[in-house]
Amino acid sequence: MDSRPRLAVWKFASCDGCQLSLLDCEDELLSLAEAVEIAYFAEASSAMEGGPYDLSLVEGSITTAHDAERIREVRRQSKFLVTIGACATAGGIQALRNFADVNEYISVVYASPQYIETLATSTPIAAHVPVDFELRGCPINKVQLLEVISAFLAGRKPSIPTYSVCIECKRRGNLCVMVQGTPCLGPVTQAGCGALCPGCRRGCYGCYGPMETPDTAMLARQWSAMGVAPRDIRRAFHTFNAWAPAFREEGEAHDD
């Protein structure tokens, strides 16, 4: 009998990008497969085994009543449950529906809206079941993902930074793009991307969601002083992590 810890990877409403980040581990994935039994991972294999599972990785948000029930079943079967990516941790880009009338969207997008069954909102996994850890990103950082898996297998707390993208910029030696007049969410966004956009002289888009204790109001005031319109401030906060509380509240503070 296989005595290795059992790993499961689940998909809900998402683009699959975070699951692909796991597959992109390549050589590391081979070592992972030796350390754990990958019991369920539909993205990678048709050989899917039932629970219980020692660790479940969950990608995607909850957008249907069926998925709301399914995540409860995943939780029941899992010793530990870790959400991965902006969709699972903050509702994802699809959470933009939460600020509008989803029935209006359905009538515009679908030729036969009577066949569509969906919830009025797109919500993170933690809004439905207890979550043991949330790994941010759109998509997630594969090195951070391996750290999280290793930590749970070893029975320790994952070592994931909670500081801002600004720290990553300083480590890379990037010239601050805001000093050059470019609006940037880096001061309030959690690190993890390696300051990818500022490294290309672009402002941070907030892919990793709010950092620990973000001062979004101060940043918004600075943007206003730079001439950024309230509408554009709202749009900046309402993207990949629009339903994360800090970004949601700051965006709503700049409604027309």
From TrEMBL:
Region forming the signal peptide: none
GO molecular function: 3 iron, 4 sulfur cluster binding; oxidoreductase activity
Presence of the UniProt keyword Cell cycle in the record: no
Highest taxon of source: Bacteria
Gene3D superfamilies: NADH:ubiquinone oxidoreductase-like, 20kDa subunit
Keywords, ordered alphabetically: 3Fe-4S, Iron, Iron-sulfur, Metal-binding, Oxidoreductase
Every NADH:ubiquinone oxidoreductase-like 20kDa subunit domain range: 15-151
InterPro entries listed in its UniProt record: Hydrogenase_assoc-protein, NADH_UbQ_OxRdtase-like_20kDa, NiFe_Hase_small_N_sf
Cofactors: [3Fe-4S] cluster
Stated name of the protein: Coenzyme F420-reducing hydrogenase gamma subunit
Organism of derivation: Azotobacter chroococcum
